[in-house]
Amino acid sequence: MMNFSTNARCGSHTSKENISPPSKIDALQVQRAKQRTVLGVLSENDQRGRSFSQGSQFSKHSSISDSSQLTFLGRPSSSNFDVYVEEACEVVLAESGQEVVSDSYYLDAETAALQNPDLRFLLELSSSPCQDASMQSEPDKSLMSEEVLCVSEYAEDIHLHLRESELRSRPRPGYLDRHPEITNGMRVILVDWLVEVVQEYKLGSETLHLAVNYLDRFLSCTAYVKRGKLQLVGTAALMIAAKYEEIFPPELNEFVYTTDSTYTKRQLVQMEHVFLKTLAFKMAAPTTNQFLRLFMSIHSVGANTENLALYIAELSLLEIDPFLQYTPSIVAAGAYCLATYTVNKSFWPDSLHVFTGYTMAEIVPCMTDLHKLYLNAENHPLQAIREKYKTSKYCRVSLITAPAVLPFL
């Protein structure tokens, strides 16, 4: 049996968290020879700036035994995809036919830049070893940051585009009927594990939301996926989402390692190939996280409210029923309203009503379902999301008590 182991702001948030360059594979292989109970302490993560604590332990459900409820995740048989994957090879720039520019070109360009006082100041500022402390602490800006989304000229167009796109990239709510060997509980365990992997590799929240969207859409377009292949599907979904969203996604070897080498690199690459063909390479899917970021850029909220809304939205990823019947924009609106009511006893501001066209009557059904999920989060058998939002990075919002009732019920 295998081991199924493995931004929000309190001050600020960023979804591009793993921003250091990749390291050498040799260091990875040496470290992997050591004993581990979870994802392991990968030596290259220290160099990447996305390392994790030497003594970090995932929750007890990460380890699967025959007596556990998680026994559906057994070691899979050899890959049965009729796909031939050639080994990837590096292409030298000079062999691609692209013109190679001489060093003198860059020297001339630098000389010209230094003659421009504004550019010279910029170069001096960026290269100075004694930058201002406020500059050093400035967080990296996410592509989904409020500064990018809240551009008055384009905010409405962005919103309309996302609303149109979300209808084309929705999974089928009842897709598990097409997979007799997979249950809702198995999917919940898989998503909980994906949360832990995202945390350990310090990937962004958007990467998690995308991975779950890819997972659900893939299972909506296929049938009779074996239970032994479910973790392979989930790992491929996360790998593709990381490649799409992150600046420096984890390497292929690391994704294999997260599954305790249950699957080979070849199997994972084959699954990635099948995954992309099944989804017709349509990977730009609007997520609840995107809509939340947009809503909070239009009508800003405090750190507690923001993180609580992100926490509630992430909880919704665990459950197919009822949340796949709602669009991501409605789930985002419901999470926003529930968070603002919990913290400030307010609901949907007029600015967002005008911006989205959503009324409270349209939001209430989803908000009610989110409230039930929020109330039961403490007693849920899988706690990865709740543990994540207990940290100071997210203002420990998962410790905030949910309102016992909502006033309109």
Automatic annotation (TrEMBL):
GO terms for biological process: cell division. SUPFAM superfamilies: Cyclin-like. Coiled coil: none annotated. Keywords: Cell cycle, Cell division, Cyclin. SMART domains: CYCLIN, Cyclin_C. Residues 1-24 are annotated as: Disordered. Residues 286-403 form the Cyclin C-terminal domain. Belongs to the cyclin family. Cyclin AB subfamily. This is G2/mitotic-specific cyclin-B2. It comes from Sander lucioperca.
